[in-house]
Write a structure and sequence with these properties.
single chain; 332 residues; alpha+beta; Serine Threonine Protein Phosphatase 5, Tetratricopeptide repeat; Beta-Lactamase; 2 domains; five-stranded antiparallel sheet; 70% helix; elongated
Length: 332
């Protein structure tokens, strides 16, 4: 009986020790108790299943089944059939696993099985409780050892932090000296910048030359350059507008809307609304403008909103003559 109890206790702790004690229990029992023999066989079958020795497990469990059937011990048969079902399940033989699972339910009712398991587990639980108390004592001792180790590590960490802080202070002092050295260099640079008025004057002259080049480019461009303020008044119009329309720039400034073909006024209005939606918006439109000496001519305007740009403060429009292309395209 002692070997059975020891084997049952080690069942979930060390299956090799459990197997050894359960075999000794079988050898010594000589049918003292059917319940003791069947419990030992059931647990040996469980251990062999856990170890993957399925054929041996089935042999032991079938032997126990024969013993249980001869003794008419139905609860023992149910217990062994549960172990057989588990073994076949581990072998992936689902059909036999289901068969023994169902048969075990038929042989013993739930109350008897529960009572048997309850008594066995209570016995095991008491033994495990004693073992657990021993384990807890060991855990406490181990915890104290670990705590001491962590305390030592904490002290070492504090020391390393102190050393690191000391080194950091030295580095900061070194960096402070460097910063002071750089400040002296910055003072020299500022003094040099204060004497750079001549360079600024030269830069201003370069800007003026750039503006002159821009004026020449606009003057010699084949497209009309137009700057329109947010109040829709023309702020600037390039001289090429006179050669393309026959009107002077002043005439265009004062009556540009009246020169637009009536059918194109709506598209020009939509074009203007698009440009006023937000800054930097781009839009294009094709429209007809009345020439001073001829009929209407086709033009295309591409414009971008720079109203909020302090450099322009207006809508910039590039207008080119597309009369020939338009009429040729319409012809074909």
């Amino acid at each position: 009986m002692a070997y059975l109890q020891i084997g049952s206790i080690y069942l979930n702790l060390d299956i090799d020790l459990a197997f050894e004690n359960l075999e000794k229990s079988l050898e010594l029992s000589k049918a003292f108790s059917v319940t003791q023999d069947l419990t030992a066989m059931s647990n040996i079958g469980y251990i062999l299943t856990q170890k993957g020795e399925y054929e041996k497990a089935i042999e032991v469990l079938n032997k126990g089944m024969s013993m249980s059937e001869k003794a008419g011990y139905k609860i023992g048969s149910a217990m062994l059939q549960v172990r057989l079902g588990r073994c076949y399940f581990e072998m992936n033989n689902i059909d036999k696993a289901l068969y023994y699972g169902l048969e075990s339910g038929k042989i013993a009712d739930m109350e008897s099985s529960f009572q048997f398991e309850k008594e066995r587990k209570q016995h095991e639980s008491e033994k495990l409780q004693r073992d657990l108390e021993i384990k807890n004592q060991r855990v406490i001792i181990a915890g104290l050892s670990v705590g001491s180790l962590f305390l030592l590590l904490f002290v070492l960490a504090l020391y390393q932090l102190y050393v690191h802080k000391k080194r950091t202070n030295l580095v900061l002092l070194h960096q402070k000296a460097k910063i002071e050295e750089l400040n002296e260099e910055y003072i020299v640079i500022n003094e040099q910048l204060a004497l750079s008025n001549q360079q600024l004057t030269e830069a201003k002259e370069k800007i003026e030359k750039s503006e002159e080049r821009l004026r020449l480019i606009i003057k010699n461009s084949n497209d009309i350059i137009l700057l329109i303020g947010q109040d829709t008044k023309i702020k600037f119009i390039s001289d090429v507008a006179t050669s393309l329309t026959g009107y002077s720039t002043e005439e265009i400034r004062s009556s540009i809307v009246s020169l637009v073909h009536p059918e194109d006024l709506d598209s020009l209005s939509a074009f203007w609304r698009t440009l006023n939606v937000k800054e930097l918006s781009i839009a294009s439109v094709q429209f007809r403008l009345k020439h001073k000496n001829e009929d209407y001519r086709w033009f295309e305007a591409v414009a971008q909103n720079f109203v909020d740009n302090p450099a322009l403060g207006a809508i910039l429009s590039n207008i080119r003559d597309i009369d020939v292309q338009k009429k040729v395209g319409d012809y074909f």
